[in-house]
Design brief:
313 residues, alpha+beta, 10 helices, globular, binds magnesium ion
Length: 313
């Protein structure tokens, strides 16, 4: 079984490139110093995002390469979705330990390229290097009509808090490897949502980020939270939905006078969204309203990317 270190770098790059879908028209780059791509048309602005996928942190060494490669692309695509963007280009810096079989890497890379292509993006370059653990450092470029990109900053007191799907149990169910980036939903929110992010660190923690960015407070309605089957199976679906992380659903806010328009305009191919709370003035803070009424402070827990102790499975 060959390892990447058994072949010259140029051959390794050529083999990885061969795993990808055909290059898009007007593109030049693989094997050159830089990728060269068409500039966005007038009236669009660029979205740039980088995201690491590291063995032992975001995936385990015994997981299937197809699922790992998929996740490497999907995490960046999910961030572009949260900005309301259309994905265009992806670059990948691969850090490869000597123990990683070449055919494992090729299978992962093919899945990464497939996932990108399915959502409108092409892998146009990157680099390879040695490391003590496997990592995919993925760089995504997308674009969005000028002024219509979604951010975390626009929520106002009185807006509704909404989510695109059920939450919790992602590590237990494997959803964190197999989720669908909510790109169509992000596009549908352009011009209607006041703020948006993708849920990676758990609802409680990510909502706090959105509230801080927008200078607002919030109240989550526990009785309206949608739970996954895995969250229910874990025995404490509410805590799971608030704190597990890696849901990759969109959390967004909508002014109440736009809710009707959003419902009317929501494309049939998009997953349904649900209202799960309301935004409050900043001084009110963050609250959880229990299923039977009564508020308690919304405690965080959640998945802190810099403090997480155990690798996810
Ligand atoms: Mg994000």
């Amino acid at each position: 079984m060959p390892f990447p270190s058994d072949v010259p770098e140029a051959e390794l790059i050529a083999r990885l490139r061969a795993c990808l879908p055909p290059a898009p028209p007007g593109f030049a780059g693989h094997g050159d110093d830089c990728a060269r791509v068409a500039a966005p048309v007038p009236g669009r602005e660029l979205l740039l995002k980088s995201d690491p996928l590291v063995e032992g942190v975001h995936f385990l060494a015994d997981q299937q390469p197809e699922r790992v490669g998929r996740k490497a692309a999907a995490r960046v695509l999910s961030d572009l979705a949260a900005a309301g963007g259309d994905p265009r280009w992806i670059l990948v810096n691969l850090q490869i330990p000597g123990t990683c079989p070449l055919d494992w890497l090729e299978a992962a890379y093919a899945a990464l390229g497939d996932c990108a292509a399915r959502h409108g993006a092409a892998v146009v370059g990157g680099d390879v290097g040695c490391a003590t653990r496997l990592a995919f450092h993925v760089f995504g470029v997308g674009d969005v009509p000028v002024g219509q990109g979604l951010t975390r900053r626009g929520a106002r007191a009185g807006d509704r808090l909404c989510v695109t799907g059920p939450l919790g149990g992602s590590l237990r169910s494997g959803h964190h490897l197999d989720f669908t980036p909510r790109l169509a939903e992000g596009r549908a929110l352009r011009g209607l949502a006041s703020a948006c992010l993708d849920l990676s660190d758990g609802l409680a923690r990510d909502l706090r980020q959105l509230c801080t960015a927008s200078s607002v407070g919030a109240r989550v309605w526990a009785g309206r939270l949608p739970f996954t089957a895995a969250a229910r199976a874990g025995g404490d679906p509410l805590s799971s939905a608030l704190r597990d992380g890696e849901d990759y659903e969109l959390l967004f806010t909508v002014p109440t006078d736009r809710l009707k328009a959003l419902r009317a305009a929501w494309p049939s191919e998009c997953v349904p969204w649900v209202e799960i709370g309301e935004m409050l003035p900043a001084a009110a803070g963050l609250w959880l309203r229990g299923p039977g009424g009564g508020d308690q402070p919304l405690s965080e827990g959640g998945n802190d990317a810099l403090a997480r102790g155990a690798p996810c499975g």
